[in-house]
């Protein structure tokens, strides 16, 4: 009963806190053309809050409008009865290829591509192509793009000593500029005619450095070795900028430094690199990487080894099975809920779009992966995927997988084949 | 575990002795006496028994006893491994491996047909790949030459522990490897299926003639003794059905020809080493022969473009009535330690968990004709075991201990490798 009352309080809090909360308002939409969509009776994994059993999740114009057991559903709402299913936030793929189009996605995405549908069949609703995060908005380009110019790519590696020095100098110049700006503010008080420092003098890399120091952009760097990670962590700590490291294979060695600097990571738990026994410090990949980063408080997103989707037959190694890559992190000791976070809310945080996607909260985008079991279990299949409050994938209405365990039946007969379908039957 | 730790404390000293001339290598220590008290034992025996709260005793490298925890006393001198939350399953068996040796000797392209070669010569004990495989609970592999040529040589059945080939080896030659289509077509311009089928037929007919000569001599020693020929001699086991033929075969048409030419006409005991793409449609032909094993992999799915459907290969073979069905990794195409993950994918796309676990333990042991020694937890069988945190097919479960021939060869408690 305690659990139930806690759920009620949470639901009530959401109802009162939400921007368009309140039963009365919901039943009388102000705009007659509002688009309502509701999912009922599912077990809702909010990710940032509790698991709620069987609430109504009401969506209005592609956003979550209310979550609760006593939410009134408008008459014109499209209602999805998801009794017996689990509703998770749509999964977020922080790297991808082919699921949404290249820059600019709104001009390149094929909203009927096989890759997009397979991504949706894997529960993915947001994917990054190049430097833009976009929705797998099947059949429409409406509200396709989530965020552009996600990252400022930086390179800081001993393989390129000149590049390292240049980048440090850029950060120094940007820092000097900010100090000059501050000094100017002081000077202006006594000398109104004082000349401000010239922002236009900072160009190219220096301009990027300035944006980083002002926290206007998130830096991103590819780094795998303990030394690269530690160097980047020290740099981000010294100059105080936000940085995402992609790869982080030896993050388990440098986790303390990464945590201190507030680094974010993008990791692949199954990364496989033998130890170099000649080395005098720990190195190589570890299945425990995710757990160790988690225990140090380094937030991370998980991506599989291949960030496209292939139908060539080697299953379970690309974005189609993103949840399975997260399951491998659990093998190394990461708690289940942290593994789910790494493909939902923490992935959204890495991209700086956690206010839009990655959890089930009032006001956020109505992106759901509605699945027939525990998201991290290998038997679990996606039943519906919802993007921006629209059903973008329905397993039983799409030919791809409708024949696999329809209605959960493990003994369902196979689909008919083309020639030679009657082989052996006389 | 205390005993292990005590031994480990002295390990540096032992290591010195290990390199002392004439001393036994470290891995070849005397088999331990082990007692497992675990939450679940999945025996994979013919009755498909699964015992909850059970004890398994291991002595002299063999399984000595399997019984309920209550009522099975653990004798003194046995190292007790007490894991009430864990599962004990048979060591996993891989029917299709290329990674237990040096990758460089995967297949020698000297001729399109060079059956005299043996992978035994390329086996590399204690390689990183072998250590990783053990961390995934894999204890036995069938290491075969690649598919670059039509007949590429003979495979090796080997355990994954031992400091030298002698300690590891189960059987060599362990199989004849035949590649019917696909990769060997790249051997040289003009090599296609019809030529390779002809090439296979004539090579195998010659081998059969050699075998018949010896058979005649063995029945009637007064007959002229045939001349020994290394090139043909290993084929004798294949025609005696003591050695399997692993066929690189996939697609409907190619599997059809494997079944017809090799199993039906030449009476070889064949294993469909890939059985991928739309090959599952040959299920009635395969069933008709009765003794053909399908080892599915590395591809676990087939995209039927005409119907726009994703087919789970293993599920489709199963639905077609084929029960001699396992999955493989084709390691290193899929890393060897991910063998149970292949089973997970087979299940995700329509197969069933228990059958799939059987498809990486007992069924591949039968496939390799080693079921009298491997693939199940039964009294008298080799003590090849994996201790898992849960269902081995679930990628979230980890292998905690791997035992080969009664020796602990991997302990995640010291260093988790996978």
SSE topology sketch:
The complex is a heterodimer of chains A (426) and B (418).
Chain A: H1 2-17, H2 23-27, E1 36-40, E2 43-45, E3 51-53, E4 56-60, E5 63-68, E6 78-81, E7 86-89, E8 91-93, H3 105-108, H4 114-121, E9 124-129, E10 132-135, E11 145-147, E12 151-153, H5 161-190, H6 205-213, E13 218-223, H7 226-239, E14 243-247, H8 251-260, E15 264-267, H9 289-296, E16 300-302, H10 322-331, H11 336-341, H12 345-351, E17 368-371, E18 382-387, E19 390-394
Parallel strand pairs in A: 1-6, 2-7, 8-9, 12-13, 13-14, 14-15, 15-16
Antiparallel strand pairs in A: 1-4, 2-3, 4-5, 7-17, 9-10, 10-11, 17-18, 18-19
Helix pairs in contact in A: 5-6, 7-8, 8-9
Chain B: H1 2-9, H2 11-19, E1 34-42, E2 50-59, E3 62-68, E4 79-90, E5 92-97, H3 128-135, E6 138-143, E7 151-159, H4 165-168, E8 169-179, H5 193-219, H6 230-233, H7 235-239, E9 244-248, H8 252-265, E10 270-272, H9 283-289, E11 293-296, E12 301-304, E13 309-312, H10 313-319, E14 325-327, H11 339-348, H12 353-358, H13 362-367, E15 385-388, E16 399-404, E17 407-411
Parallel strand pairs in B: 1-4, 5-6, 8-9, 9-10, 10-11, 11-14
Antiparallel strand pairs in B: 1-2, 2-3, 4-15, 6-7, 7-8, 12-13, 15-16, 16-17
Overview of the molecule:
The complex is a heterodimer of chains A (426) and B (418). By secondary structure, chain A is an alpha/beta fold. In chain A, the strands form 4 sheets. Chain A has a 6-stranded mixed β-sheet with strand order 3-2-7-17-18-19, with helices on one face. The termini of chain A are far apart. In chain A, helix 5 (161-190) packs across helix 6, helix 7 packs parallel to helix 8 and helix 8 (251-260) packs parallel to helix 9 (289-296). Chain A has a domain at 2-84: Urease, subunit C, domain 1, CATH 2.30.40. Chain A has 12 helices and 19 strands. Helix content of chain A is 30%, strand content 19%. Chain B is an alpha/beta fold and 418 residues long. Chain B has helices spanning 2-9, 11-19, 128-135, 165-168, 193-219, 230-233, 235-239, 252-265, 283-289, 313-319, 339-348, 353-358, 362-367, and strands at 34-42, 50-59, 62-68, 79-90, 92-97, 138-143, 151-159, 169-179, 244-248, 270-272, 293-296, 301-304, 309-312, 325-327, 385-388, 399-404, 407-411. In chain B, strands 5-6-7-8-9-10-11-14 form an 8-stranded mixed β-sheet. A 7-stranded mixed β-sheet of chain B has the order 3-2-1-4-15-16-17, covered by helices on one side. In chain B, strand 5, helix 3 (128-135) and strand 6 form a beta-alpha-beta unit. Chain B is globular, with a radius of gyration of 22 Å. The two termini of chain B are 21 Å apart. The relative contact order of chain B is 0.16. The model of chain B is unreliable at 1-28 (pLDDT under 50). The chains are: A alpha/beta (426), B alpha/beta (418).
């Amino acid at each position: 009963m305690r659990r139930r009352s806690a759920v009620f309080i949470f639901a009530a809090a959401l109802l009162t806190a939400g921007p368009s909360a309140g039963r009365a308002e919901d039943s009388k939409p102000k705009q007659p053309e509002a688009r309502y969509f509701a999912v009922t009776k599912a077990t809702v994994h909010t990710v940032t809050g509790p698991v709620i059993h069987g609430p109504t999740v009401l969506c209005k114009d592609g956003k979550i409008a209310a979550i609760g057991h006593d939410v009134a559903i408008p008459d014109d709402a499209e209602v999805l009865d998801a009794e017996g299913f689990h509703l998770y936030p749509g999964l977020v793929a922080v790297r991808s290829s082919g699921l949404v189009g290249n820059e600019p996605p709104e001009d390149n995405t094929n909203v009927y591509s096989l890759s997009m549908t397979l991504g949706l069949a894997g529960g993915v609703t947001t994917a990054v192509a190049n430097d833009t995060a976009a929705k797998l908005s099947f059949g429409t380009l409406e509200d396709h793009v989530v965020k552009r110019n996600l990252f400022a790519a930086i390179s800081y590696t001993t393989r390129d000593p000149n590049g390292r020095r240049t980048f440090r100098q850029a950060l120094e110049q940007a820092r000097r500029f900010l100090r000059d700006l501050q000094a100017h503010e002081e000077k202006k008080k006594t000398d109104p005619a004082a000349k401000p420092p010239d922002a236009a003098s900072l160009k190219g890399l220096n301009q990027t450095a300035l944006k980083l120091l002002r926290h206007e952009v998130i830096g991103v760097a590819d780094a795998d070795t303990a030394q690269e990670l530690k160097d980047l962590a020290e740099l981000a700590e010294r100059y105080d900028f936000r940085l995402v490291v992609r790869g982080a294979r030896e993050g388990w060695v440098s986790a303390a430094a990464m945590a201190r600097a507030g680094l974010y990571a993008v990791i692949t738990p199954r990364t496989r690199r033998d130890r170099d026994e000649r080395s005098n410090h720990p190195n190589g990949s570890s299945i425990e990487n995710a757990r160790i980063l988690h225990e140090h408080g380094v937030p991370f997103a998980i991506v599989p080894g291949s960030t496209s989707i292939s139908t060539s037959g080697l299953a379970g190694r690309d974005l189609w099975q993103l949840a399975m890559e997260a399951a491998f992190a659990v093998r190394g000791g990461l708690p289940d809920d942290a593994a789910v976070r790494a493909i939902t809310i923490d992935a959204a945080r890495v991209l700086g779009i956690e206010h839009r996607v990655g959890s089930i909260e009032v006001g956020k985008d109505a992106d759901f992966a509605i699945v027939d079991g525990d998201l991290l279990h290998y038997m679990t299949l996606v039943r519906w995927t919802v993007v921006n409050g629209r059903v973008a994938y329905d397993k039983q209405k799409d030919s791809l997988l409708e024949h696999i365990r329809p209605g959960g039946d493990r003994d369902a007969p196979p689909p008919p084949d083309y020639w030679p379908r009657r082989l052996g039957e006389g | 575990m205390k005993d292990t730790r005590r031994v480990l404390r002295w390990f540096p000293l032992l290591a010195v002795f290990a390199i002392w001339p004439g001393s036994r290598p470290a891995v070849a220590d005397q088999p331990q006496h082990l007692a497992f008290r675990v939450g679940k034992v999945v025996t994979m025996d013919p009755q498909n028994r699964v015992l909850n709260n059970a004890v398994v005793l291991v002595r002299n490298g063999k399984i000595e006893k399997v019984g309920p925890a209550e009522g099975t006393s653990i004798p003194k001198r046995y190292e007790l491994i007490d894991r009430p939350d864990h599962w004990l399953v048979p060591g996993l068996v891989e029917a299709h491996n290329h990674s237990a040796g040096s990758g460089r000797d995967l297949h020698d392209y000297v001729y399109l047909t060079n059956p005299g070669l043996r992978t035994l010569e390329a086996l590399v004990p204690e390689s990183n790949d072998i250590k990783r495989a053990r961390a995934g609970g894999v204890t036995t592999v069938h290491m075969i030459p690649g598919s670059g040529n039509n007949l590429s040589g003979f495979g090796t059945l080997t355990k994954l522990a031992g400091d030298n080939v002698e300690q590891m080896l189960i059987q060599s030659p362990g199989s004849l490897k035949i590649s019917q289509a696909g990769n060997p077509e790249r051997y040289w311009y003009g090599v296609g299926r019809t030529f390779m089928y002809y090439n296979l037929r004539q090579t195998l007919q010659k081998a059969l003639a050699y075998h018949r000569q010896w058979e005649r001599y063995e029945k009637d020693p007064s007959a002229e003794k045939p001349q020994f020929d290394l090139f043909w001699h290993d084929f004798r086991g294949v025609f005696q059905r003591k050695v399997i033929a692993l066929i690189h075969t996939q697609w409907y048409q190619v599997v059809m020809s494997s079944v017809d030419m090799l199993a039906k006409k030449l009476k070889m005991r064949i294993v469909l080493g890939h059985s991928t793409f739309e090959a599952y449609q040959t299920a009635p032909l395969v069933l008709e022969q009765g003794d053909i094993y399908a080892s599915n992999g590395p591809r676990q799915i087939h995209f039927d473009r005409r119907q726009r459907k994703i087919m789970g290969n293993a599920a489709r073979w199963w639905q077609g009535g084929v029960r001699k069905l396992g999955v493989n990794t084709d390691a290193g195409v899929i890393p060897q330690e991910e063998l149970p993950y292949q089973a997970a994918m087979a299940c995700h796309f329509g197969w069933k968990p228990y059958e799939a676990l059987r498809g990486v333990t007992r069924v591949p042991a039968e496939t390799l004709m080693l079921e009298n020694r491997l693939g199940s937890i039964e009294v008298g069988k080799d003590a090849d075991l994996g201790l898992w945190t849960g269902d081995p097919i679930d990628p979230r479960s980890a292998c905690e201990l791997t035992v080969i021939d009664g020796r602990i060869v991997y302990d995640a408690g010291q260093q988790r490798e996978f």
